[in-house]
Design a protein that fits this description.
The protein has 370 residues and is α+β, with helices and mostly antiparallel strands. It has 3 domains: 71 residues, PAS domain (Beta-Lactamase, 2-Layer Sandwich), CATH 3.30.450; 111 residues, PAS domain (Beta-Lactamase, 2-Layer Sandwich); 145 residues, no CATH class. It has a 5-stranded antiparallel β-sheet, sandwiched between helices. A 3-stranded antiparallel β-sheet has the order 1-2-3, with helices on both faces. The chain has a two-stranded antiparallel sheet with strand order 9-10. β1 and β2 form a beta hairpin. The radius of gyration is 50 Å and the shape is elongated. The N and C termini lie far apart (152 Å).
Length: 370
C-alpha cells in the first residue's frame, strides 16, 4: 500500500494505521500515485472487530483531485479579486468614455425613446432640430417629424414595442424648431434601456444626398436630350440638303426672268436658302452641344466671339448691332468645342428675321391687285 503513496505521507499513514489498530476511526487526505499520474484522495479508516479483538482495518478512498483544483483556483481568484475588480472598473470606465465620445460626436442623430418620450438625445439631434437638448428630453419624439408622418411613426413605434414586424429603416421629413422642413433617414431598433424596453433611433440628414440625386437626374435628362438632339439633327440634315439643292436648281434654271412674279419667287428662294443655312448652323450647334468631349479652356478675344456670333446669326440688314466691350478685359475663357452662346444668338436673330420676313410677305400680299 505504501508504494502507492508519496513518501511525504508515509509517517501520517503509519500513525493513522496505529490508531486504527488501537480501535480509533481516522480520516485524512493524501496524494497517491496512479498510472495516470498523481491524484489527491480523501480516506476514512475504521477498525474491524471479531468479538473484542481488532482483526482488520477498512479504508474508503474518494478521488477529490478536481475539487482540490477548483479550491486552488478559487483561492487564487480570491487573492486577486480586489485587483480584478479594480481593473474591471477601470475598463468599464474607459468603455463608457469611448461610448460617450462615439455617441456624442456621431455625425448622425441618436435618440432613445421610452414610453413615446425622448429620454436621451445626442448633440447632433439638437443641431438637426435647432433646439437645446434639455428641451428635447421628455418631448414626444414624433414631434420632431412633419405632421403628415407622425401617425405613421407612432403606429410603428407601438407595433415595435409589441415585437411586431415593422420596417426598421425609412425616409420621412423632419421639422426644425425654426419651421424648416428637410428629409431624413430614420433607422429604429428595439433595445432595453435601464431594464425597460425602448427604441434606439438613428436620424440622418439626407438633404445633400437628395440634392445630389436630383442633380444626377437632371444630368441624365440632359444626356437624353443630347442623344435625342443628335438623332433629330441627323434626320433634319437630309431634308435641308434637299431644300438647298432645290433652291439652287430654281435659281440656276431661271436667272434671267425679269417679271415681277419671277423676282418675288427668286427673293423667296433666297430666303429659303438663308433659312436652310441658319437651320444647318443650329444643327451643327446641337451636334456640338451633344458631343461628349473633355472640357478644354483657352483665352479668346470676346470681340471675335461677338463678331462670329453676329455673322453666323444672319442679322437682318434693317437691324443695327452695337457692341461695347472694355478693352482692359476683352479676353475671356470659354469652352473650345461648344458654342452655346452662338446657338442662343441664332435663335434670337432667326426670330427677328422671321418677323421681318412675315411683315414683308404681308405687305407684298396687301399690294397685290384684287
Amino acid at each position: 500500500m505504501l508504494e502507492l503513496v508519496s513518501k511525504k505521507y508515509w509517517p501520517r499513514i503509519l500513525d493513522h494505521l496505529a490508531k486504527t489498530v488501537r480501535g480509533k476511526q481516522v480520516e485524512g487526505e493524501i496524494e497517491v500515485i496512479t498510472p495516470k499520474g498523481k491524484r489527491i484522495v480523501e480516506y476514512r479508516s475504521n477498525p474491524k472487530r471479531r468479538g473484542n479483538k481488532i482483526v482488520a482495518s477498512q479504508t474508503i478512498l474518494r478521488d477529490i483531485t478536481e475539487r482540490k483544483q477548483m479550491e486552488e483556483k478559487l483561492r487564487q481568484y480570491s487573492e486577486h479579486l480586489e485587483e480584478l475588480v479594480q481593473k474591471r472598473t477601470e475598463e468599464l470606465s474607459e468603455s463608457e468614455k469611448k461610448y460617450s465620445a462615439l455617441v456624442e460626436e456621431a455625425s448622425d442623430g441618436v435618440v432613445i425613446a421610452q414610453d413615446g418620450k425622448i429620454v436621451f438625445a445626442n448633440k447632433k439631434v439638437a443641431e438637426i432640430a435647432s433646439c437645446p437638448r434639455d428641451e428635447l428630453i421628455g418631448l414626444s419624439y414624433e414631434k420632431l417629424l412633419d405632421e403628415k408622418y407622425r401617425e405613421l411613426v407612432k403606429e410603428r413605434y407601438t407595433k415595435r414595442m409589441r415585437r411586431e414586424t415593422v420596417p426598421s429603416t425609412y425616409e420621412v421629413e423632419a421639422t426644425a424648431k425654426t419651421g424648416e422642413h428637410f428629409p431624413v433617414e430614420v433607422s429604429v431598433t428595439r433595445i432595453n434601456y435601464q431594464r425597460l424596453p425602448a427604441s434606439l433611433v438613428i436620424i440622418r440628414d439626407i438633404s445633400e444626398r437628395k440634392r445630389m440625386e436630383e442633380q444626377r437626374l437632371k444630368l441624365e435628362r440632359l444626356a437624353t436630350i443630347g442623344e435625342l438632339a443628335t438623332m433629330v439633327a441627323h434626320d433634319l440634315r437630309n431634308p435641308l440638303t434637299s431644300i438647298r439643292n432645290a433652291s439652287f436648281y430654281i435659281k440656276d434654271t431661271c436667272p434671267h426672268c425679269t417679271s415681277a412674279k419671277c423676282k418675288t419667287a427668286l427673293e423667296m428662294v433666297d430666303i429659303i436658302e438663308q433659312e436652310t443655312l441658319s437651320a444647318n448652323n443650329i444643327i451643327n450647334d446641337l451636334l456640338d452641344f451633344a458631343a461628349k468631349r473633355p472640357l478644354q479652356k483657352e483665352i479668346q478675344d470676346i470681340n471675335n466671339i461677338i463678331e462670329d456670333s453676329l455673322t453666323k446669326g444672319n442679322v437682318p440688314k434693317k437691324y443695327q448691332s452695337q457692341k461695347k466691350v472694355r478693352q482692359k478685359s476683352d479676353c475671356v475663357r470659354r469652352r473650345k468645342a461648344t458654342r452655346k452662346s452662338i446657338l442662343k444668338l441664332n435663335k434670337k436673330c432667326s426670330a427677328g428675321h422671321a418677323k421681318r420676313r412675315n411683315t414683308s410677305n404681308y405687305n407684298k400680299r396687301s399690294k397685290r391687285p384684287h
